[in-house]
């Protein structure tokens, strides 16, 4: 099975070699997008791009003032008022699971269907912090929150004709290790270690979730957009900080380019067949070897479900997805 997966990746890699950046605007109008961490950086660039196309966008961020600034920026860019009226703000702290339960409930009440969920929020932190719910901050923001957001919006994504989940990954995931006995990294913490672990966990989740979704039309993939000039990794972390600054001032691309790369996964036909894949820039690449390890994927899945169950059990049991023995079970429903 692992060999087949590897061969598929090779084939996909070759198919993508000639790929150029092309995002059609046609399918983005009238589609409903949910973009997390969207008041700055790559998320904000995604919203600007989507607003130009007239998409309906739920912007999830933690700072209402930054949302107002975003709207002012759209007005300055002469985006038509009709398009701007389709952009809505949802305030939430995405490192806090109860806040995600609350915001997803508001989103479920606001839209009949969600066409595209972009789990973009993420960060790199030099110093160890613990959330009010007891999780290491990087793991909570970059991984647990993405999983919970996905689970709690799945019923609405299922109602779309072209459900699509895109997680913003990082090439750093390839340097990651899952510290199964110490996911909270309480024994030894290092910013890069925490970031790489969270991004690897996210990639493993994408692979496992894509298997869960294989009988549906919902796509789920991850993309590393490149090194992008944003506010990420602002905290002081010595040599790493200097190295990151250097990258930002040399090879880094603009957030607008990163946004276009991400949107390829929405409507570029070359990407339509992807399920559980890792795209780096404009090419499908192989992800960390651990993502092909069925046992490790299962182990992480079970731990994750166990951690998150108090937040999603009460909601999913009465919604479109049910649970049996810690496994999600997909119930095909009519999209009426
Ligand atoms: N930049 C890169 O080179 C790079 C490379 C690979 C992958 N990525 C990934 O790309 C994604 C976006 O990163 P970025 O570079 O655009 O970062 P960024 O400029 O720091 O933007 C992060 C966004 O997330 C929001 N956010 C952070 N913590 C939050 C929280 N607890 N609750 C709600 N919103 C929160 C921020 O809100 P505020 O506006 O309030 O700060 C901001 O809007 C991340 O997943 C990152 O790992 C980035």
Written account of the structure:
The protein is an alpha/beta fold. The protein has a single domain (25-330), classed as 3-Layer(aba) Sandwich (Rossmann fold). 45% of the residues lie in helices and 13% in strands. The protein has 10 helices and 10 strands. The chain has helices at 2-16, 41-53, 64-76, 81-84, 97-110, 137-158, 191-212, 238-249, 255-267, 294-316, and strands at residues 32-36, 56-61, 87-91, 116-119, 164-168, 219-224, 278-280, 283-285, 321-324, 327-330. The strands form 2 sheets. An 8-stranded mixed sheet has the order 3-2-1-4-5-6-7-8, with helices on both faces. Strand 5 (164-168), helix 7 (191-212) and strand 6 (219-224) form a beta-alpha-beta unit. Helix 5 (97-110) runs parallel beside helix 6 (137-158) and helix 6 runs parallel beside helix 7 (191-212). The radius of gyration is 19 Å and the shape is globular. The model is unreliable at 1-20 (pLDDT under 50). Bound molecules: NADP nicotinamide-adenine-dinucleotide phosphate. NADP nicotinamide-adenine-dinucleotide phosphate (NAP) binds at residues 37, 39-43, 61-63, 66, 93-95, 120-123, 141, 168, 170, 224-225, 227-228, 230-232.
| Class inferred from helices and paired strands | alpha/beta
Q: What coarse outline follows from CA principal-axis ratios?
A: globular
Mean pLDDT: 88
The third-level CATH topology is Rossmann fold
How much of the sequence is in beta strands? 5-15%
Question: Strand order across the biggest sheet?
Answer: 3-2-1-4-5-6-7-8
Main sheet overview: 8 strands, mixed
CATH superfamily (homologous) name: NAD(P)-binding Rossmann-like Domain
Q: Whole-Å distance between the termini? A: 37 Å
Low-confidence segments, given as residue ranges, are 1-20
Tally of contiguous helical segments: 10
Q: Secondary-structure element sequence?
A: HEHEHHEHEHEHEHHEEHEE
Bound molecules: NADP nicotinamide-adenine-dinucleotide phosphate
The tally of structural domains comes to 1
Q: What share of the residues lie within helices?
A: 40-55%
CATH hierarchy class name: Alpha Beta
**Strands, total number:** 10
């Amino acid at each position: 099975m692992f060999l087949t997966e590897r061969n598929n990746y090779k084939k996909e890699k070759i198919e993508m070699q000639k790929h150029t950046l092309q995002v059609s605007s046609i399918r983005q109008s009238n589609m409903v997008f949910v973009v997390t961490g969207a008041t700055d950086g790559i998320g904000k660039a995604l919203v600007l791009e989507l607003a130009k196309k007239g998409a309906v966008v739920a912007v999830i961020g933690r700072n209402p003032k930054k949302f107002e600034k975003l709207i002012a920026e759209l007005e300055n860019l002469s985006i038509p008022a009709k398009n701007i009226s389709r952009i809505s703000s949802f305030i939430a702290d995405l490192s806090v699971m109860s806040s995600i339960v609350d915001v997803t409930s508001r989103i479920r009440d606001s839209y009949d269907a969600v066409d595209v969920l972009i789990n973009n929020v993420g960060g790199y932190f030099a110093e160890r912090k613990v959330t009010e719910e007891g999780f290491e901050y990087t793991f909570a923001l970059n991984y647990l929150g993405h999983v919970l957001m996905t689970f709690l919006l799945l019923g609405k994504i299922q109602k779309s004709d072209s459900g699509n989940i895109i997680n913003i990954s990082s090439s750093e995931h390839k340097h990651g290790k899952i510290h199964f006995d110490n996911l909270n990294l309480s024994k030894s913490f290092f910013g890069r270690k925490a970031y790489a672990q969270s991004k690897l966990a996210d990639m493993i989740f994408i692979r496992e979730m894509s298997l869960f979704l294989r009988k549906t039309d919902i796509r789920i993939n991850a993309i590393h957009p490149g090194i992008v000039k944003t506010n990420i990794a602002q905290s002081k972390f010595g040599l790493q900080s200097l190295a990151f600054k250097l990258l930002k001032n040399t090879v880094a691309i603009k957030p607008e380019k990163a946004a276009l790369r991400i949107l390829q996964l929405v409507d570029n036909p070359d990407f339509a067949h992807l399920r559980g894949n890792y795209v780096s820039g404009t090419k499908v690449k192989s992800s960390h070897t651990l993502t092909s390890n069925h046992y490790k994927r299962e182990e992480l899945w079970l731990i994750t479900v166990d951690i998150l169950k108090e937040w999603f059990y009460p909601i999913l049991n009465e919604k479109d997805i049910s649970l049996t023995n810690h496994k999600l079970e997909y119930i095909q429903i009519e999209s009426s």
